[in-house]
Amino acid sequence: MAHKAGVVGGSRLLTIHDPEIELSKDRARPLGITALMILFVIGTIASLISAVSLTFPGSFLEPIWHVNPQAREAFTRLGGWAIVLMSSVCAACLCAAIGLWRKRNWGYWLALGMLGVNMAGSAVNVISGTELRAIVGIPIVLFLLGYLVRPQIRKQFH
Predict the structure, then answer these.
(1) How does DSSP classify residue 104?
(2) Using one digit for the tens of pLDDT, what is the confidence trace for 94-104?
């Protein structure tokens, strides 16, 4: 049981039970949650760079598309909607990172949802033959989803 105590001249004035102190001790952030939060921060940065690059084609960011030229082509076909899409992904990744960091219920569900959408997209890309490399992401996302739904991890969120 966690207590706060006031001390004057070596004697205790008051001892009170503080559930917030106890709660914070019981809810130390697991390393896996921190790692997942970092992945969402990386997703925030990557999608922001993509959105800016799409907004200003031919800018100094253009070389990033050498990593995945098919994505650049697909985004070009989407036109302005690609900027909206990547801006939305950026905002969602940022919110998920914040929610995971703060151990909020909404952050947990947002992270689960985004990972589920990511897995579904990877599966569609692999099955349709659009992006066969996406198969690498499927077991990774399954592992992350499996980690998040473990009861001891789920109870971290409030």
Answers:
(1) -
(2) 999 999 999 99
